[in-house]
Amino acid sequence: MHMKRLGVVSHLIGGRKLIVKGSESMSFCNIKDLPRKGSAVLDKKVAKIGKVSDIIGPTAHPYVVVKIFSDVPDSKIKSWIREKVYVK
Question: Domain range for residue 68?
């Protein structure tokens, strides 16, 4: 399975969405480096935690909105803040 670093989780919004600060290699200037909407997002243990729902922010340093899967327990969500996440 090929994984690519998505970035670092910045914060949680609305209870079930993560805001991820995109990795340095990601920018709107290089479209091929952007994740596709609907792409699976994984934690450092390679567990699927959600999917890419949107890409926002400045073109040079975008942020990724990740919709967390409904079967992920609330108790795990806050543990991802300031952690690296990956996209498949």
Answer: 4-87
